[in-house]
Amino acid sequence: MAAAPVAAAPTDVAVGVAILVDEPIWWFKGRRWCHMVSDISLDELHAFAAELGIPRRGFQGDHYDIPEQLRPEALALGAREVSGRELLRSLQQAGLRLSPAERRVHFGAVRYPEVPDASA
Q: Is the pLDDT reported for residue 18 higher than 70?
């Protein structure tokens, strides 16, 4: 009698993914934005942002705000889609979360990168 086929073990597509992106729910300058963080290191976050063409000046101490139109590219490059709560929890667990007051002290006023309008 032939052996019954063994089901493949489920795989976690997020294994090794350390860049997280939440939902684009924040309106600013006429478009929606989301947060992008690393749950491993800020160096990894900066490298990923550079790959997306986001200038370092867009860094806000523990995250980048990215416009909705860059989100699909971030996901295609390997970022993992998470809820805002999961993003925050991961950032806190990694010890990378700064309070808003800490961000202001270290990074001053936020300078949002100029992103070309996708509809133009």
A: yes
Confidence band of 6 (pLDDT split at 50, 70, 90): very low
What DSSP state is assigned to residue 78? T
Structure tokens at 49: 């942002």
The H or E element spanning position 72 is helix 71-76
For the entire predicted model, the pTM comes to 0.68
Residue 117 burial (10 A CB sphere; 0-12, 13-18, 19+): exposed
Distance (Å, whole) CA 5 – CA 8: 9
Residue 42 near residue 107 (C-beta atoms within 8 A): no
